[in-house]
Write a structure and sequence with these properties.
Elements (H helix, E strand, L loop, with lengths): L3 E5 L5 H13 L20 H4 L3 E5 L2 E10 L4 E8 L8 H15 L4 E6 L4 H6 L3 E8 L2 E9 L22
Parallel strand pairs: 4-5
Antiparallel strand pairs: 1-2, 2-3, 3-4, 5-7, 6-7
């Protein structure tokens, strides 16, 4: 997408990214941020390095971001959100491309994500495979996995993390 820069998040942006999550989620509930339960864990300044928080920026403003969770046997996508006005514009795909490159750089073999049902279509289009469901904070999430070496395109032979061992954020 033209005019979008991918870069590391800055500590002062954490509140902006938390608000971006709520706006993104509001897309699926009629556009009202007030109708979105605020259950997503808040990002901290220390997350920038430990979770590889990466921002998509346009005209100096964050329009999407991702945060990763490193595990012994897989790399978890803890958060991946695109601001509501930019959903469907290619920002998510751009972030995905960067995330896939980061996964290779981290020597990850598998990607895993506990996907909200409304986000599963995106992850399927990115090559992830849905393995099973699990419950987190009262929501049913789909556990999705993909192999890093193939751009997350083929299902993992072992199905990724065993039941009950999922990144939650």
């Amino acid at each position: 997408m033209e005019g979008v820069l991918i870069r590391a998040a800055r500590p002062e942006e954490m509140p902006l990214l938390d608000a971006l999550v709520l706006r993104s989620k509001s897309h699926w509930v009629g556009g009202r941020v007030a109708d979105v339960p605020d259950v997503t864990p808040k990002l901290t300044a220390s997350d920038i390095v430990s979770r590889h928080v990466t921002v998509a920026e346009r005209d100096g403003v964050p329009v999407g971001f991702y945060a990763l969770n490193e595990h012994e046997d897989y790399l978890g996508i803890g958060l991946l959100f695109v601001d509501r006005p930019f959903i469907g514009t290619g920002v998510g795909r751009l972030l995905w491309g960067h995330l896939a490159g980061r996964a290779v750089a981290l020597d990850a073999r598998l990607l895993g994500v506990g996907a909200d049902p409304r986000a599963e279509g995106f992850y399927l289009r990115m090559g992830m495979v849905r393995r099973h469901e699990f419950e987190h904070d009262g929501e049913r999430l789909g556990w999705m996995v993909g192999e890093v070496a193939t751009g997350a395109g083929r299902p993992a032979r072992d199905g990724g993390a065993p039941p009950g061992r999922h990144p939650t954020a």
